[in-house]
Amino acid sequence: MTARRTLLLSMLLLGIAGMGPAAAANLQISPVTITMRAEQSSAGITLQNLGDTPLFGQVRVFLWDQANGEEALTPTQELVASPPIVEIAANSRQTIRLVRTQAGPAPQERTYRVLIDEVARDDDPARSGVDIRLRYSVPVFVLPSGVPGKEALDWQVYRKDGEWMLRVQNSGNFHAQIGSLTLTNQAGKDFVISSGLFGYVLAGRMRVWRLPVPKDAALQGPLAIAVNVNAKASVARNSTPP
Q1: What's the rounded Cα separation, in Å, for the pair 201 and 74?
Q2: pTM value surpassing 0.85
Q3: pLDDT of 150-167, one tens digit each?
Q4: How far is CA 141 from CA 66, 69, 98, 108, 242, in A?
C-alpha cells in the first residue's frame, strides 16, 4: 500500500457565550463552548453538514487540566459522548449528547474538552495523496455547586532565558477566559499582547505564556494590565515575579 501523508489542521474553538457557531469547510458546530450547571446531567453539540456529500467523524472526551503552566488532556469517562462515531448526511445535522457519569455537586468547577475529528472515508475515490482532517476542540465547563463561581487572578511578568514571560495564577473556583490584553509600562508605552482571545486559566490552576514582544521590551517594574476576563473589561497590576 502506498504511504499517504496526513495533514492535520487543528482549530481550537475557544468561544465565549453569545458567539455564533464555528465553521470550517462544510462542517458547522454549535455551540463552541458548553457550560453545565452543577446539577445538570447532560448537554448537546449540534453538528451540521452544509455540503453535498456525507461527513464522517469521531468524538472523544478528555479531562482538561493545567499542570506546570501547560495544558494537559487526559482521557476520561466522567463525561461521555454519544454517539462516538458519526456519519452526517449531506445537508443534514446530528446532535452529539454529552452525559455526565458522575453528576452531582462539586466545590470547584470541572473542565473538559470534546475533540471532534472530521475524517475522510478510506474508499473515497476523490481522495488524493494528502488527507485533510479538521479537528475541533470544544471546552466544557461544569459549574461549582453552591455560591456562584468566581475567578481570582494574580499576574506576573518576568524574564526567563532572555524572553519575557507571563504567569497567571487563578486561585478562584471558576475559570478565567482571557481576551484582549495590553501591558502599559511606567513610561506609558503600550504593548498589545492580544486583540482577541488569548487563553484560559482554569480554576485553582496556573498558566505560563511567552509574551510576543521583543527581548529588549521595557517591561521591568510595575505594569498596568488592561484585559478582558470572561468578557468583562478590567485593569490589573503585576505582582512581584517568582
Answers
A1: 17
A2: no
A3: 999 999 999 999 999 999
A4: 14, 19, 12, 11, 30
104 with 29, same domain: the answer is: yes
Strands 130-142 and 153-160, by their bridges, are: unpaired
Q: Work out how many domains the chain is built from and give that number.
A: 2
User: Residue type for 220, please?
Assistant: Q
Instruction: Give the model confidence (pLDDT) of 50-77 as tens digits.
Output: 989 999 999 999 999 999 999 999 999 9
Q: Hunting for cell 462516538 — which residue is that?
A: 84
Does residue 11 contact residue 24 with C-beta atoms inside 8 Å? yes
CATH number for the domain that contains residue 75: 2.60.40.10
> Residue 147: inside a domain, yes or no?
no
Other CB atoms within a 10 A radius of the CB of residue 37 amount to 10
Distance of CA 76 to the CA centre of its chain: 17
Residues 70 and 183 in one domain: no
The tens digit of pLDDT for each residue in 2-15 reads: 333 333 333 333 33
